[in-house]
Records
---
Amino acid sequence: MIDLIPGSRIDNRDELADRLSMPRAQVARMGIAELVLEAYQRWGEDCPKYLLGDFAFVIKDGTRLFLARDPMGVCPLYIGHGDAGFVYGGDVHEVLGHPGVCAEMSPRAILTYLITGGFHDPELTLYQQVTKLPAAHSLTVTGSGSGSQQRRYWHPAETARFSGQSSAEYSAQLRELLTDAVRVRLPAEGHIATHLSGGLDSSAIAALAASQLDDPARLEAWSWMRPPASAEEEGDPEWSLARAVADKWNIPLHFTPFGERDFLNILQRKPLLDNDSADLWYEFPVREQMRSRGIGIVLSGWGGDQFISNAGESAYLEGLLSRNALGTLADLAGLAKNSRRPARAVASLARHQLAAPLLDYVRWRLSRASFNGWGDDGLQLATPEFQQWARQFSETIDRLQPRLRVRGRQLQELASGTIYNRVEAWAASGARAGVSYRYPLLDQRIVEFALGLPPGQYCGAGKSRRLFRDSMQGYFPAQQREGVTKREPQRVQEAYDTMASALNRLLLKFPPAPNPWIDVAALQRAAAALPPPGAALTGEALTALLSVKRATILATLSVDLPHF
């Protein structure tokens, strides 16, 4: 017997058919549960190694349970640790619904969220008695749960490195991988949504999806930008980059209004209780628009920046520290040459691509005694008692060690749980809106390809994200081909203004009751001290806003907020 988590998908049916010595046509007709059971019967507990796709399942084999979760953690699998025996489910409330599992919140999770803004841990949830099966892991449970063995079946650090190929050859391989990663995620029927910001990741996915659909009218795109208010704004890159891609491929493009009332009503829903810690507020109204149009599948570009479309922040430093220092400096000069102000561009590139990653590493080396290397801005808003506990148990949050090499950064993204935090959060909130997310750029084949690439392939020849751009030749309009980089100063400024105003309004009119974690008076003072809406946005102001926002979310978890 098998319990399959909704949203599970197996993408390598032809390969499995050959390995299982079965006709491909027969395997193509098999249901996912039947196919997974066939793999289990052939390979036993090693079967997840042979499965490509997004999946989570539990197989009941006599008195033994075998659980497995896909390599990137797209499909969640929660486990309860109360008095109800062994409990599992694809939704945290499914597990909490068992009478033996307590909904008491985890101090470690509260601390992690307050400092990092998420549950950046492979197993952590908001609840003391609920954990997650980590991505790329399986778990065998015997009896009533008294005996268990957890194993990792995919080890990204063991991915082989490539060598000896030209950029053109790598580009052709990547194009083939990207095309297939989108293809296997397109449903056979029904309407599909895609994010479209105008950046390279979302633009590539939208273009590849539109080019492969028999009926392009099935595809619609959403931007997190509000509708442009003038002809001048329509020509601004924040709007025009996404519009250029949509026009090229005849994709209807929807913009997303987002105001103070929208933000306050999302807080009223308390998404953190659903284990949604992503804090990506624009996605809530996007989901509502999708649901109103009957769309249940969304293609997202999440994961591209971390892996295959990596901007190569460490690639230049890595090159400078290698035998190719002169070539690296020439590449940086080529990037600056394409700028309208080459001298300023040289200084900016040197600061961001060379000095910044090196200084981050030096600061980390000098701050080993500080609070875990994360900083403690958010902790200043905690109660004295919680601060004392937090500093005593600061080792409960993994240190975020800066990496000087591209592959090291990519592996850290997987180890630190930042990737899993986003996909798990969207799985939780998406399920409540009837929306399922699919991530072509987190396809295991593409992640392994990114890990295997020589670092110089990410940038060079005067272009950032060189390999990704080259692989998508013919799919992008002129703006993306010419190297225009997506920036969102207007959206970020407006988001700051909206949230700063809303948080002040909430904390002044409806101050939460005292709780074990947050010092409400300190939180109110911090909110009042935020730069007012309309003030020039600085990094310090944004950091302060994020701390106030996280503390407000924690302080209001047990408070009934009004509808706005």
---
Amino acid sequence: MYIHRCRFVEYTPTAINALAFTPLSTQPLLACGRANGEIEIWNPTQRWNLEKIIPGAKNTSVEALTWVHRTIIKESDSCYSQTKEEQEEFLKTLLNKPPRLFSASSNGLITEWDTTLLRSKSSTNSHGGTVWCMSTNHANTLLAVGCDDGGLRIFDIIDDGLILIKNLMRNDAKVMALAWDNEDKFIVSGSSDSNIIKWDIHNARIMQRMTVDMKHGKDNIVWSIKILKDGTIVSGDSLGHVCFWDGNHGTMLQKFKAHNADVLCLASNKEGTMVFSSGVDRKCNLFRIADYFTTQSSNDDFNENHWVLVGFRRTHLHDVKAMALREDLNDKFFVSGGVDTSILVSYFDGFPEDKLQRLPFIPNKPLISISKSKKLLMYRSYNQIKMWRLGNAKLPDSWKLEQIPNLDLIEPQQAILEMTLKGNYHLTASALSEDGEWIAVSDIETVKIFKVQNDPSNPDRICVKKVKFPKILVNGSSAGAHHLMFTLDGKKLVIVNIDSSIIITELDDNQHKEIKILHQFYEHAQPLDGNTSVITSIAVSGDSRWLAVGDLLNRINVYNLETFKLHSTLPKFSSTNTSLAFYPSKPTLVITLSSNEFFLYDIESQKLDDWSLTYSKSLPKTFLNLENRLVGCTFNPINSDAIILWGANYLCLIDFDKCRKEKGHQPHLATCTGWRENSKYKAIEQAPKQNGLTKKRKRDKTEKNIKRVKTDKKIINFQLVFRYRSLMCVDFIEPNTMIVVERPFAAILENLPPSFYKAQYGS
């Protein structure tokens, strides 16, 4: 089998500036704000599934994030003076509402986001320039922001927006950090002029002023502030100090020179007994509280809280700019992120020894489109479309056929198109037709369609002509798409609108002056239960007859594109669907889930097929426990009895023809020697034990990359390949010829500025 291994795609995620978990009163979600204005929403309960990406506006960055989920009744609520039963009903309605997400940007705007349409719901000007920090009070009724002009502004959070109620001004020093006390009576802020200010919110006055150390008369920036449960104030500054302050008297209790450079972020647990710090030097420190007894004291009852630096580890490869902590009944973990663009998950009960998980930085939504017949590959960046013509795969020497997973089988690719698109927001979707004649792109405001033509001035390049497309409106505003996909016959374009309605359009080669809308489906936009959700997966069958669509609530519908009717609705699965794919030769749909389970659904009989009924609930634990979830599926056209599933760092081939039941004894574990040209696999059985030992056979070097795994009762032929990293696309362009597009993490780091380095003595 021939493999195109492509690394010319220059996808580069941007730095992480902010991280925020939802309140404990609602389902756990993590919001990640990036330097390009994008906001990612991750679900830790679904194996850290990246559920949504809110596209950023051009020339903006996310500086702060917070979630709001109100759990109390305010005096301004209509039910406040009503009966207890009416108040309880109102409170129940509040609790059932999803949390609200706010971000603060370098453009001075505070934005509330619609997490279903994935666009702005409303924006409020801070009137103070860049917003550097933001936090809600514990009651989730007030929002405080710290601004570039030195102002601390308090907003009342109402259902449809924000109302400015207080403007606390001190001087021109930037407010870089803030935190609320546990009773929501005061706010502590850290500034760029070495000062920590304690504000009385009710009377809008300064209660206390604390000053951190200065160096050579220069200001020391207070980058981060936390208030613990007992009122202790913790600060991190640009001299690398982590300081603990008495919240009542404003005196310093302890100071640690814990870092060699700026302390950019702090995090603490609910009980206030653990504090994490990190910053420019990449160290993540853990401080714990301990009882300190002074035997010299004449008071036998004398004791005070004493903080100890108990451990650290360097987890990131560049500045750490944000941390967030979540404590549920079963899980206690914190996440961190920064300039190296990736999110790291740590379970802090075992810090610093416990294993870390690095979340994939490649988005679930495909950035790559392929025309197999024309051997074209198209890539979507934030505001550009690039296209290459694929060269021919090289035929390896016969002795290397067993080592194909370790070969780079690619000739130089030829760039034939580069197109920069105008608009206010980053692109959200793109598609290339199978015949290479059409290109569709979209942001959250508009869908654009182009007809591909030869460039008369350069035969090695192509040009495009824009085709008129009717404007789509959602709530009275122009709207774009979350997904785009052409049918394989090139006659239709499927558009998943931002409100989850599905538009089917007709493409005409002869008259392509304007696109015609054929039909619109509303099952996901207007569900019977009233709960609209984001569509995450779409697929079109090889005969262009069937369309499958799945959303975050695991509603998967199959539509007939000939009759424009809903054909069937699949049963709901226990985990979120991550991809859908049709078999090329039969009406069977493959559904992959965030749990790494997958199912095969027979479209015509409208039920799970026999293989899924037998095996899908008995998949190997080795496969189910893979760190990264499944994100895609592809098929070798020459082998109808096998599929290839893939995640961010692995490929997995399942040969259905070799699945068999094992009788009378436990299944054995075998390994595979390599990928053969005919896509069939040769296995080496593990020899039986003799005298407590196992005879070892000579194994090919590729066994470290390819393994066969087992189930408890059945043998399923699973071949796992770990050769590739940060996969963006895996697909077959013809029988026995596969293209793999990867973006190694090392390539991301090469584009970053040098990280902090402190020379050691003798080095």
---
Amino acid sequence: MVGGLGAGRSPGGPSAQSWGSGPRVARDSGAMAEARQAAGFPSSLSPDGADVLLSAPVLRDICLSGLRSWQRHLSRFWNDFLTGVFPASPLSWLFLFGAIQLAWFLQLDPSLGLMEKIKESLPDCGGQHHRLRGLLAAALFASCLWGALVFTLHVALRLLLSYHGWILESPRAMSSATKTWLALVRIFSGRHPGLFSYQRSLPRQPVPSVQDTVRKYLESVRPVLCDEDFRGLCGLAQDFLRLQAALLQWHLRLKSWWASNYVSDWWEEFVYLRSRNSLMVNSNYYMMDFLYVTPTPLQAARAGNAVHALLLYRHRLNRQEILPTLLMGMRPLCSAQYEKIFNTTRIPGIQKDHIHHLSDSRHVAVLHRGRFFRVGTHSQGGLLPPRALEQQFQRILDDPSPASPQEEHLAALTAAPRDVWAQARGALKTQAEATLEAVEGAAFFVSLDCEPAGLSKETPAASLDAYAHALLAGRGHDRWLDKSFTLIVFSNGKLGLSVEHSWADCPISGHMWEFTLATECFQLGYAADGHCKGDPDPMLPPPQRLHWDLPEKIHRSISLALSGARTLSGNMDCHVFPFSHFGKSFIKHCHLSSDSFIQVALQLAHFRDRGQFCLTYESAMTRLFLEGRTETVRSCTREACSFVRAMEDKEKTVSQCRALFRLAVDKHQTLLKAAISGQGVDRHLFALYIVSQFLGLQSPFLAQVHSEQWQLATSQIPVQQLHLFDVHNFPDYVSSGGGFAPADDNGYGVSYIFMGDDLITFHISSKKSSTKTDSHRLGQHIEEALLDVASLFQKGQRSLACGFRGRSEDDSGTGCGPPPGLHSGSPAAATPTGC
């Protein structure tokens, strides 16, 4: 239920001014690429424009192109129609029409005279058409009745999906109301839904009570404020409730009645698109390949299979063959974010960006050693097979031609502040429009890196850290950050994904990435020599080299962008470590929520790292509602702080600490359930702040809320398609998740993923410029904190972690047995813990 990576992170990085006064614009000779293509075109046309030898292939190609185009249009129209009438189906209309005809044959009139009136209103074409008019009248009546039934089903299902009592209940102790609700949802949900089938039936996100929101907010900040500051904040809150809250709340309720979602469009615009900071580390996150294995060491082969698998996913997406995500097997989540996975680019603007999405794209843009290529993904027969794509990528790798001056570092402009890049892009669009459109109009971006990456047996810790850094920031000029995502293929065949955040959240790209890894490895597979299966196509034309021929006047803009990007990249401190002492199975045996377990343990680790508590951001999804995105779970609670203090107090017994830990977990679960059911704090306060800015109202309380810094930003990466991976028979084929940058210059970004039963992988980031943070130091504290918490639930394992030496054990233990791989002789147990 936890949402996307780093959602809601405060943009950081250098200001636009630090990158210079702006790009120097000049003429670009990018049209030379078009001239070269024209020069290579066959010149055998006769003076009258006809060529007998070419006419038959041309006509055949035109015919096939038209048929494919119409087939796509008809397929999309049919899928949209099925989505619009779901949970009904066209067969239900046919059944209704047949029932009306049968009743008419038995001299019964189910329409109570309406069909006769419809028939009378139809034009009279003679007596011989009397029966046809009757059939047409019956069809019109059946269609109207069927439309009314479909509308009724939509309303009924929307009302059913608005019930959230099930979230607050344990599956083992469901109330009668929830059981009745489940039965009704089964009845009204229909069969064989497509990806977007439930969109018309999803409820809108509710606007919480402003009094409840302010109360919850004050409760959340109490642990991190001194008494004097808290009293001052309470005074500001009371003034806000008395003077401004009612007016701002009224505008929000008005928007909630009119718009699909009262907060999501503002969240996308003001948090992402209006940010002028660099996308690098501020609005991107990464996802890793398999942790322990690489299916093939051949870079071109891995790229061929991965690109083919991604395009297969897009094909299924276009045909709506991807099943919607259902909680409890029946509660659908919103699928709106899937629409912009492919063919999408974030276009920079002077004041705000906009997201440009194409209905289709039949090529990918590729970057290798500073050179750009256009690789077609389809032939006359459809999608290119993996071996043909491998052939194209190998041609790029073997191409000895160098990058033209400054072209090698051109992509650094996408890492510049957005207004700087917008000005430079204006020059590019004027002088090299076709080349720019080839890159921005691609299905996605592919970067063929020249360096290896991934887990190394010689230096496992350092290699994983370098792998994460390469995916998050790269070298500053080897990613086109504007694209919805960049597929990164390293020289040793390792994969990775860099995702731009504005268009969607992590569960969407994560769903695609799971399908890609499973498909390219287990279904497409590789030949014994490491190549993609199949044979090369000698008739396949080579990839098209994209020529920018950049003018000298734009060189300064590129140099400034590259300098700023390298500064951002060099400032990132990334640390990745797999925690294998125990995992989800042990936590479940303790009858605890796995996510809450980690969140409370993170509070203990962070306190030991910094010696103080801080506001903690955990991203949770709100996709129970139409166009929902994320909400914040404020994990630093009074209950969590009480537990941490008890753990640091040697006078507290194990049973006391265990009881406080369960209270902290229960509190976190309460906050998480409130967040996903639309009763969170932060999105409501954010929307109230936006309304106050529109109305020109100054609210010291909302200004205080808006200025908060999240020194600990966290997120769990959800695993959504476990059926694609056999973690028991193939335990090495597990993804190591992904990560994001910290939200605050003096803070941490922490993400984690549960893979299998006994492995948790953590991704930690911070900034080297901060003297208060150290990613490796926090990683050590997280490991020790997890071991200390686990020892609370062990029988007879008092000295399992050194943090418990000297602590009294007042009972024999009421937890579960020792987790797999956890023993007192482990290296972590020999390390003293402390604040």
---
Amino acid sequence: MMTEDAGDYSVPIKLDTLQNSAVTSVSVPLARGVLHELTASQLLANGAPIPCGAKALTNWPDGSIKWLHLTFAVPKNLREDLIFRVAKVKQSETANAPESLSYISNDSHTTVTHSLYRFTLTHADGSFSIASGTTDDANKVIRGCLNLHDAHSRLGAVSSCQVSIDHTQSLLDGAIYALSVQVDMTYALVDDGTVSNITSTSVFLFTSAHEAIKLDVTLHNANAAVHSGGSWDLGDANSFYFSALTLAMKGDNASTFSYRTEQDSPWQTHLTEAATDTNNVSIQQFSSGGENWLSPVHVDHRNTLPFSVNGYQVDKEGEVITSGQRATPLVSWADKVSVTIENFWQKFPTSINMTPNEMLISFFPAQKNHLHELQGGEKSTHSVWLSTNDKPDSLDELTSSSKGILFCGEYIHSEIPLYTECQNAHSTIQDLINNGLHSQNNFFEKREKLDEYGWRNFGDIYADHETAEHQDDSIFVSHYNNQYDPIYGFLRQFILSNDQQWFTLADDLAKHVMDIDIYHTKQDKDEYNGGLFWHTDHYLQAFTSSHRSYSKHQGIGAYQDHAGGGGPGGQHCYTSGLALYYILTGNPNAKEAVQTLTQWITYVYEGGNTCLELLLALKNRHVLGLKNHFTGQYPLDRGTANYINALLDSYVITSERASLQRVEHVIQHTIHPNEDVTLRHLSNVEETWFYTVFLQSLVRYLDIKSVNKEFDDAFYYARDGLLCFAQWMLEHEYMYLDKPEILEYPNDTWTAQDLRKAHVLSAAYFYGNKHDHTLLQKAEYFENEVSARLEQSDTKTYTRIMVLLMQNDGPTSHFKHAVLPSEFNARKTDWVAPAYAKGSNVTRIIKAFVKRMLALSISNEVNWLKKRLG
């Protein structure tokens, strides 16, 4: 909890002692009204203010800062926890502030000045130069540009280039602590010169804390996939095929360059003795270098493996001089700059090619008889570090730096209910979760089993639970695609344990989801645009569908109601992990991803404004899982829960009131506080089990309203709805596997799902003023049964079970020990009948069509139809 010290608010920050001198970041949640201006706060080390970059990520409705992201270098002599304090910095405390960054930008150029270099960006084509010191000495200038080569190895022409700048303020002196320069380029097709839908985004990040420059390069194919027949295979007609994407850098008058292939390997130096010497050396990672490097996870559109070399090779003048499994190269080049690529081997194929005067950093290297394929709506991001420091090993520290966190109790101020402050670190469920790091089937080992590496795969989790029916020893390829939100689970475990391995898993997965699993296009059907792709279809190999669920090679009828084919759908939308990732890292791509997914799932349930669409809705008005657009009622299922969660996540990161009001509308048009729950037929488990997921989202809404002390009619409508369903659960719910005969696949995934019931029942106990102890007792029953049964299970380390535990553990203890903010009102028994139960069906249908006809647009109707007819 935030403490008060002589009138100042302060928050302790917990750091791993091994982090000393590394650049670290942490996010701090602040109570409403505590901090309005950044300059009224400071970061203390050993009692004295230190340089610190600060950026407000979200604000409360009154304008005060809700979440603040801090970046800083940890002092080597740190003797105690850092303290973030809300207090004015005294003038005397800023005397030792380091020289800050500065920049000048006009229509044609942006120049960033650092005490150790000067960086100049040309707006016309995104090319740049780095000069040692702050003067343009021709002998000390490195020039670079990003080059995209098409399928015929021709250099892509830049048709447009836009530059934007953002900076992070220093708490110590108010100057610029960090600066990002973003370059967005669109490419023209070489054949006819027309503008394509292929774009790149380069983000240069500068900081006053060190001299290194980080560059993130993202390539994007904004075309929609054709996905004929509902299959989403590689080789799609709208995929983008290209030969190479490289960062080309040139220097002058250099005589040597050195490199290291692995972190503990010796440095190799190459000397040029004559002007005609080239000394061309390349380091290329062809495959993962792992035991399962030939896994079918890597097949291309021909369903064949596109490589034949295990690991990496170092070539000199075309001859292999050394080889190995997994390269993490660091290069000292042109007597001026050091370079390293993050996740060099993990995101293969990658390469670095060096001569004394030129270096090619290939995010996608040119390969004989093979083209790279970027699917429609897909992105790929690579990161490279450039340093003018004459000590290249210093880059090791920057690329491996990690995050600080707060003590668990501090997060109680947050609108994201993490349920961490009362967590038992030694419970059986926590021990089961810890298998994710410490068992023989931990999440890192799962990567090795599938060889979940390469630029498209790295970061995702192996869906090993789908291998249960697999009969032989061959590798069964199945991707998890963030089902049930392991990003949220990993981050929650990181907060609980301060174990950086959990953050690593979350970081890798979040970046994968943001690039690969989200459908980044606006040219497909609106119910697909910006959506999240399903996990690989149940019990089937991925084949050439990569991370897009459905392949033409998969069979039909694999399980009950299986048809094959499809696309992104609202039943698979998970945003809370991405929202938490944004809040903990400040990564703007995560915020954009949350908003994109929210916009998409809103369309899935609310639709557009065409009459043709309304005709389809009339046909499907009784289909399970779809909103009835004539009564206005939403389905009681996980899709509606996902919709609510997405709206809540958007509200958390933007504080836009409209998102919360939309949540209230959805809740009030899904359930009623006085309804007869027996009419929901919840005993039909296969068809209705996910009602608990909806109730969990309803609890999350109550948690947010409670933090904000908004106990209005909307709050009590939802609260009473929770109590209504909880009473039915108290009398009728049981452990799913106690009745295995009614389940199609009675396995321990059902046991893990039972933990959701504990969440709902313990929340009902709390929001019912803690009066009905039988609710808490039954919640504890479910929690104890889940832990006891899974402890004895042979499948307890399966991915889906592990993720369900990470996502759903904690609420029972939280609601048991949490202090009531006030005495809640008594439950009402006379709520007005729901709007979806009023009026005749004929009247509703007529009104809906009249409303659409009044807003009729022929072009919209034609566009809607064209997208569905292909």
